[in-house]
Structure formats: structure tokens, C-alpha cells
Amino acid sequence: MRATIITEPTVEPISASELKLHIRLDSGTFDDNLTSTQTVPPGLHTVDADYVAGTGVDVLGNNALAVLKSGTNGSSGTVDAKILESDDDITYADWAGGGFTQVTEANDNTTYKIEYTGIKQYIRVDHKVLVASCDLGIDIEVESSSVTEDNLLAEMIESSRIFVEEKTRRALITQTWEYYLDRFPAENFITLPFGNLQSVTTVIYKDSDGDETTMVVDTEYIVETNGDMYGRIVLPYGISWPSFTPYPSKPITIKFVCGYGDTSSTIPDKIISAIKMKAAKLYETRGEPLIGTSINASVADDTFDSLLSSSILWWVDYENR
């Protein structure tokens, strides 16, 4: 069987969060796993009628938290603070939703936090002190460690999905393929691989001169999707396959779309469970070769195989019969 994937799946059957829950991975809360950078140094800040600019911090691609740590305000003193954002760490503008609650004597000695959910590369926090000097400091805390881990989990999820697809001979998430034949079959149908056929885009054959002809759906062939089984292209009553002298390389190309759909909700639960099991095993053994086989590993393999046993598609190569 010769086939080439044209359009890869745009999503995966499970998310990194779902995998973390499955493997009971607890890397701590967002607030517990942060790298902290001072945008406003802690200490006693004197009165200034204008906002004082903080230091910009690069937060591109990471979660970020602005933390205002209020000490004691002077008599009737107030502190106003706000988050600003920038593309270049030069030109800043107020970020909507980035205004802190004004700190007065009634609510000082408190820590205030705002999570930055914007899209700019840099942020800073500006502050203004009025009436009397106030004790404060402002940090920007960046969650950078989780990005690397999530990337690792994403790779494991993709690898597990591909492994399950190869084992079951199925396409799970929507994808586009080209299937190549050297000749039209003796039968009045062509079976397409991967199951879950959604649609056939084109059926094209090329003659020895390199001239291509596109067959007409519903006139020269009929599409059978057949649910989660193998889809087929079938000749209508009284129609024969075209007679031609084939081009020496890939003379017949069938382009089609297959897969359960674009979301995990369309994939059977047992297949989702098998993907989680495979990804968990990859995570458990990351960076280390497996030596020997434990009883628990054997049981896990048996469970994995059992989950997928009824989902395997058995291929009949009609082309080469």
C-alpha cells in the first residue's frame, strides 16, 4: 500500500492537561512555579504626581503574573499601579484589565496579583504614590518551566496518537491523504485505507504522455463512506474503469479525507484510553531504555492491546491479489 499524508491533523485526541491528570503529574500551581523579576524594587517610595515606569520584562510564550506587595502606607497615602504592554520594550501602552486596586491605609500590607493574558512580548508595572510615602514592591513572575514540560507532553501525545493509528490502521483525527495505484483493479471497487472515510476529493489517472484525467463523481464512480470501516470507491452500474496506458510512476492518485473528526469527542473512549496509556508509558520511561519486562509492564501491555483489539482494521490488498 502506497499512501502519503497531505494534511496533518490540526489537533490531538487529548490535551496536555488531560495527560497530566491521567499520569497524576502535579508540577505545583501556577503561583508556586514562577521566576520572579522586580519591575519596581521594594522599599519606601516617595510622592510623585506622575506614574513612575517600572522595568520591562520579556514574557513572550509564557504565563505571567504581576504581583504588587504592599507594605505600610504613610498617613493618607495611596498607591496606584497598572500593567502596561509593549512589542519592543520601548513603546508601552496600558493593558486593558491591568489596573490594580488602589492601595490605601485601609488595605495596605497586602499582596495583590493580576495574571497577564495579553499577547505582547514585554510588560511592566507603573506606579504612582500620592499624599505620603508608601512602602511597596512589584514583581513580574513568569512561568517558563511549564512550557518546556508541555512541549514534551505534546510530543508524547502526538507520538502515541501515531502509534495507535499504526496499530489500528485507522486515522483518528481528520487528515487528508493521497493513495496511489499502478492500475485499476479487476473488481468494481477500490478500497481506501485508514477507515472513517469522510470524502473523496479527486480520482485522477495519468497516461503515458503525462496527461491527467479527473474522474467525475457520481457519474464514473460512487463514494461509500461505510462508517468507521474502510471506505470504497465503487463503479456505478454499467460503468467500467478507464482503459489507458499508465504513466510509469503513480499513474492513479486518489485524494481523500478521513478520520473520526476534528475533536476527541468523536473518537471511541477505549481508543482515547489507549492513547493516554501509551503517552503515560513514554513519560514514565523518558530518556531511559527499558531493561527487562516487569509483571506490571506486561499487564499494562495486555490492557493496551485489549483496548484496541476490536478497533483494528484488517487490510485486504485487492490491488495485488
Describe it.
With about 325 residues, the chain is an alpha+beta fold. It has two domains: about 1-25 and about 150-320, no CATH class; about 35-145, Jelly Rolls (Sandwich), CATH 2.60.120.1110. The chain is about 20% helix and about 35% strand. It contains four helices and 16 strands. It has helices at about 15-20, 145-170, 270-285, 295-310; strands spanning about 1-5, 35-45, 55-60, 65-75, 80-85, 95-100, 110-115, 120-130, 135-145, 175-180, 190, 195-205, 210-215, 220-225, 230-235, 250-260. The strands form four sheets. The protein has a five-stranded antiparallel β-sheet, with no helix packed on it. Strands 2-9-4-7 form a four-stranded antiparallel β-sheet. It has a four-stranded antiparallel β-sheet with strand order 3-8-5-6, with no helix packed on it. A hairpin with a 5-residue loop joins strand 12 and strand 13 (about 210-215). Helix 3 runs antiparallel to helix 4. The longest helix has 24 residues, at about 145-170. The protein is elongated. It starts with a strand and ends in a 12-residue tail after the last helix. The mean pLDDT is about 90.
